[in-house]
Amino acid sequence: EGQLVESGGGRVQPGGSLRLSCAASEFKFNTYWMHWVRQAPGKGLVWVSRINTDGNDTRYVESVKGRFTISRDNAKNKVYLQMNSLRVEDTAVYYCARGAPQGFDPWGPGILVTVSS
Amino acid sequence: SYELTQPPSVSVSPGQTATITCSADTLAKQYAYWYQQKPGQAPKLLIYKDSERPSGIPERFSGASSGTTVTLTISGVQAEDEADYYCQSADITVIDWVFGGGTKLTVL
After folding, report:
1. Cα–Cα distance for residue pair B107/B100, rounded to 1 Å
2. Nearest Cβ partner for A102 among B54, B97, B101
3. Cβ–Cβ of B94/A59 closer than 8 Å?
4. Is 70 exceeded by the pLDDT of residue A106?
5. A101 and B49 in contact by Cβ < 8 A?
6. Would you say A83 and A20 are in contact if contact means Cβ atoms under 8 Å apart?
7. Which of A57, A87, B69, B85 could be stapled to A52 by a disulfide with Cβ–Cβ 3.0 to 4.6 Å?
């Protein structure tokens, strides 16, 4: 029940910007908190950010504070991650996931972001 | 924030029982969640609220909590269970989330 698909990834130079999108379907999007999670090549999962149902309460992992902004458009069933001042260490597969008391489920297939000169 | 500590690797023979632990002081007060990730795939929820199993997850996967340690048990391990396993919990005061470092399960 529910599907998520990320888009907007790619290669960018250090200091550049990208905006990731996550399109949701087959569930009532505006009733769920949404999350972004990333995974650097060969590394573990790192929770990046979350947003509440109304979009007026957001949180970030310390390493992206001030550079990344999460937002959502409930009319379009989408959540976004604006990534500015990108660093080499932001290179990762980025996943969006639906949050609930029952855990993060489902997850999107992920989108690769490569920060390299 | 805080850290969730998992063993980097666990090995088990087919048909045996695999046990993966996750430790942190906050687990005494917060729920834990477990995810399975196979190469090239997105993580998949296995266990929520310490011991609840979502629909569609085989009964051989179970979770338990005791004090500051939570445990994922896989009974009758199958070759298809070879994957990375991550625990997760929340800092409920600010509603931030944390993942453990992951445990690679090898089926010998």
Report:
1. 21
2. B54
3. yes
4. yes
5. yes
6. yes
7. A57
Nearest to B99 among A47, A59, A108 (CB): A47
Return the pLDDT at B1.
62
Residues of chain B positioned with their CB less than 8 A from the CB of A63: none
Chain A residue with the nearest C-alpha to that of B46: A103
Out of B1, B48, B84, the one facing A103 most closely (by C-beta) is: B48
> What string of pLDDT tens digits covers the 108 residues of chain B?
678 999 999 999 999 999 999 999 999 999 999 999 999 999 999 999 999 999 999 999 999 999 999 999 999 999 999 999 999 998 777 778 999 999 999 999
Classify burial at B52, counting beta carbons within 10 Å of its beta carbon; exposed 0-12, middle 13-18, buried 19 or more.
middle
Residues B10/B105, Cβ–Cβ less than 8 Å: yes
For the cut 80, the answer to whether the pLDDT of residue A50 exceeds it is yes
Query: Which residues on neighbouring strands pair with residue A44, listed in sequence order?
Result: none
- Closest-CA distance, A76 to chain B, in angstroms, reads 24
Q: Which one of A4, A32, A38, A45 makes the best mutation probe of the B interface by having the most chain B beta carbons within 10 Å?
A: A45
**Quick one: DSSP state of residue B55?**
T
Contact B43 A101 (CB under 8 A): no
State the DSSP code for B41.
Answer: S
Beta strands in chain A (DSSP E): 3-7, 10-12, 18-25, 33-39, 45-51, 58-60, 68-73, 78-83, 92-99, 111-115
